[in-house]
Every structure is written in C-alpha cells, then in structure tokens.
Design brief:
4 domains, Rossmann fold, 15 helices, single chain, alpha+beta, Hect, E3 ligase catalytic domain fold, 524 residues
Length: 524
C-alpha cells in the first residue's frame, strides 16, 4: 500500500501568533490531508518561532529550497498547512517566486487547510494571490496593533521591553497597579505577562556621578571627551562594563529619562525593513517620574548647551571655528577639533556639512586631508566588498549583520547559521616601525573576542597583500610589525573557497579549549 503513495515533504512554521498554528497542530492536519490524498510524508522541514516576513532567518525553508534546486530529493511534493505558513512576505511575488522554484523542479506545493486545490487553474491563481495579500496585510495590521498597545503601556508610566536601564538607574518589577515587587538584575525578565517594569534610581554612588556629570558639563564647561576621561580616571564603571567615551557621555546628558520622561519611537524598523530615524514630531514622550534624578532647571541648562554646539551656530560660525583651529595648530584633524575647548564636535560637523572633508574644503584646507580621508574611505569600501564576496560565496552559511540605532556605528560583520560572529578587518599599512612594514589594527571593543578575518594592505593601501584568519584579536589598539609574534597565530587564506572551512575549524578548536579548560585550583 505504501509503495503506491506519493512521497512528500512537509514544511511547518510557527511564529508566536496563535496556538492553532503550533507545529503539532500543523503536523496533524497535514497527516490527515496526506492520508486522504495519497501522500506519504517522508521528510520534515520546520521553522519554530520564526517570522514569515523574511527568508533569511528561516533555516528550514532555505534548506528546503536548496534541496529542491540541487536535486537528489526523495519526495515528489511539498505539503504546507496554508498559504500564511509558506510566508507573510510583504511582496506577494516573493512567495510566488519560491513556490515557482519548487514547481519548476517538478515538486508542486499543496496547501492542506485551504478550500482550493493548487492545480494551476486561473481560479487557484487568483485565490493564492488574494490569500498572500491577506497574509501580508495581517502582518502589517498586527504591527500597527502591537505598536498602539505599546504606546498605551508607555503613556501609563511603564517602561516597555528594552535594553539596559542606563547608568544610575535600575529596573523595578511592579504589579499592574504600580505596587513594587523587586529589582530586576541584568538579564532578568518578568515572569507574569501582566507585570510591568519601571525605572528607579540606582545605587547612591552612581546617582551622585550622574549629577556630577551634569555639573561638569554645565558649570565647569567640560566637553564630552573631557568628562569621559574624568570618569575613566576615577574608575567609574558603565552599566555595560565598557569605558566611557564621547558618545556615552553625550547620550547620558541628552537622555530625558534622567529628567523623569521616557522618549519612544525615535527609531523604527517595522516589518523587518531597514532601520531609520523618525522625525521628532513622531516621537512619543511619556512621563516617568520614578526615574527622575536631574531637576528640570539643570536638564534644561544641559540641553541648552548641547544645542549651542550645533543648532545655534551658523555654517559661517562653524567654519570660522575650523579656521581658528587651523591657525592655532597648523593642521586640522578630529584630534585637534576635540582638543579645542568649546569647539563643535566632529560628529556635529559631519551632520552639518556631510563629511569633515567637505567642511575642510570650504575653508580651503586640502593638504593631506583628501589623501587621508580617501584612504579611510577606501578601507571601508574594501571591508564591505570582502563581506559581500564571502556572503555571496557561502549564501547558506553566512549572513551580513550590522549595528543599527542611536549611538551605533556602521560596522558590519559576518554571522554563521549557528550564531558565531566573524569580524572582518582591513588594516592599512603605516610608516615603518623599526624599519619594518607595519599595519594599524584598531581596537573594536565589541569584536575583540570574535574570530577575525584580517586583510593586510600593501604600502600604498590600494590592494590586499595577504589575508589571515585569527581565533581572536587582542583587546587593545596597536601597530603590528611584520615580525610580530601574534601574526603566527593566524591561518593564511590563499583561496576564498577555503574560508568557511578554516573558520569552522577555528571555531571548533575554540569550543574544545573552552570546554576542556582546566578549572582554577582552590588555594584555600
């Protein structure tokens, strides 16, 4: 009897929508359909807890399509619960394209819970188009409803799910009526769906430092970088355990939560689209008095000084500042701009003129500038080209990821299907150190523990001289001479085809060493 049945593969997908779409319920419905229509399920592909909006995060469907295209599969049909389980792609042609790939390979797709038969007729084509459109519209409507629900929670004075509370603040778990329950440690989540989270002042020493930061900025007239140096010199630990820098201080001084207000909706990334910043008119500012550390007068003074750096300065005033810095130092760079008290920050200059190079050109300063900035831009382009080339060579194993949001850089990296992150570095050559070739390796705090592909450029910094895969990168900023012992820890990459194999071996060795690391002896 089984010999007469058509071998089929079933595809199961569940997001977090509803119990009716659980993998078990889908499997039961598909099994009944298979028994009634002469199919025998011989293989299963599944995507548990995966959104149907994009393909890149759905390993099951990607593997199914890859098996169909490469051939050699034992099944002759694909069984799916309904059209929405195949995907809620916002472009309905995308869902049709993936089905066409299977059909063109001689493996049709059957939707088991739909009222129509996928027989290729005109009526079926119209119904599938309608169903795909409704599935996409459902995802869009759900996004709108979820956003509206979140806004309601925010306006009631509660904090939504988010990142760390911030230096000087802590998360407090409260009941729906606002009764405090307990402080949440880093990484802890609420257990009950009805519970809420608010921000409260943290340890007294952190609160005192927050007020001191505002005093240094308003009264002492220190800039962001000078304040960061003071904090680091006094051993003040940030909430993410990283050193203080220009951006961290500016973020603290401009964040309304320290003044008892939470701002939401500054950035948006709905339906897996590209992250973008919303206009200020669309921001949602909700009262949150429990987090208030800085009084209104002090916060207003800080905001006034922040605006004075950029908004109250015309283009001519900014350019006059640059001319004065050039006259005082004989050259221009981010270092000299930041070292000048009261000067507009390099970040603000880039926002106003598009880039530092354009601002320098406006005052007639071009000596070495175009060459230096052009080299940095060329290095960024090389890094992006490396990322794209490797991702295209290993589309099933590697994905390109990057930072997104306020205070984030534009750094991008590779990530394997298992979640391992790979740093891609391009190191420009610098003037000889001890009369030997040397390269500059910048410290990236986020990436120093990752496996790294490092590209060393030639003397003119125009071409890649060699590629090396390292288990990790040292946690500091330094210059690498050609005879540096650390270079011997890497594996030379002669052919891009060997890249993923080398990375896999490197990750396996790291996991083995971590698993078999000898415990620290008890010296008591």
């Amino acid at each position: 009897m089984t010999a007469n049945l058509i071998p089929a593969a079933q595809y199961l997908r569940m997001s977090t929508e509803h119990q009716q779409y659980s993998l078990e319920n889908q499997g039961i419905a598909i099994k009944k359909y298979a028994e009634l229509n002469g199919f025998n399920v011989v293989q299963t592909y599944e995507d548990p807890a995966r959104s149907g909006l994009v393909l890149k995060n759905r390993d099951g469907l990607r593997q199914l399509l890859n098996d169909v295209v490469t051939g050699g599969v034992v099944f002759k049909s694909i069984l799916v619960y309904d059209v929405s389980r195949w995907g809620r792609f916002q472009d309905t042609d995308e869902a049709a394209h993936y089905e066409f790939i299977c059909r063109s390979a001689g493996i049709p797709v059957h939707y088991c819970a739909e009222q129509f038969t996928n027989d290729g007729s005109v009526v079926t084509a119209l119904m599938k188009t309608f169903k795909r459109t409704m599935a996409a519209e459902y995802a869009r409507e759900m996004g709108v409803k979820i956003a509206a629900g979140q806004q309601t929670v925010y306006m009631k004075g509660f904090r939504g799910h988010g990142s760390l509370p911030g230096f000087g603040l802590r998360r407090m778990l409260v009941s729906p009526d606002g009764t405090p329950k307990q402080l949440l440690a880093r990484g802890e989540l609420k257990a009950l769906h009805t519970d809420r989270v608010i921000l409260v002042p943290g340890p007294p020493d952190e609160v005192d430092w927050v007020r001191e930061i505002f005093r240094l900025f308003i009264v002492e007239k220190f800039n962001y970088r000078e304040i960061a140096e003071i904090l680091n010199a006094n051993g003040v630990d940030r909430d993410n355990h990283r050193p203080w820098n220009f951006y961290a201080v500016r973020y603290l001084l401009s964040n309304t939560k320290y003044n008892g207000r939470l701002t939401y909706g500054m950035w948006t990334r709905r339906l897996h689209t590209k992250c973008r910043k919303n206009p200020e008119s669309q921001w949602l500012v909700a009262p949150h008095p429990t987090s208030k550390i800085i009084d209104d007068e002090t916060f207003a003074a800080a905001r006034s000084r922040i605006r004075a750096f950029t908004i109250n300065k015309s283009d001519d005033e900014m350019l006059d500042e640059l001319r004065g810095i050039l006259a005082a130092n004989g050259k221009l760079s981010t270092y000299y701009i930041r070292s000048t008290p009261g000067a507009t920050s390099p970040f603000s200059i880039r926002c106003r003129f598009g880039s530092l190079l354009k601002a320098f050109q406006r005052i007639g300063y071009t000596a070495k500038t175009e060459k230096q900035i052009g080299t940095r831009r060329r290095i960024r382009d090389m890094q992006l080209q490396l990322l794209q080339k490797l991702q295209q060579m290993f589309p099933e194993e590697l994905e390109i990821h990057g930072n997104c949001g306020p205070g984030k850089s534009n750094r991008k990296w590779l990530q394997t299907r298992e979640g391992a992150k790979i740093s891609v570095r391009v190191c420009g050559q610098v003037p000889n150190i001890r009369w030997k070739p040397a390269w500059r390796l910048n410290h990236l705090a986020q990436e120093y523990r990752w496996t790294a592909l490092v590209a060393f450029l030639n003397r003119q910094n125009t071409e890649i001289q060699r590629l090396v895969v390292f288990p990790s990168v040292p946690k500091r900023r330094w210059y690498l001479a050609s005879d540096d012992p650390w270079l011997k820890k890497g594996i030379e990459l002669h052919d891009f085809k060997d890249f993923f194999q080398i990375v896999t071996q490197t990750l396996a060795v790291r996991r083995f060493r971590r698993k078999n690391a000898r415990p620290t002896p008890d010296l008591k």
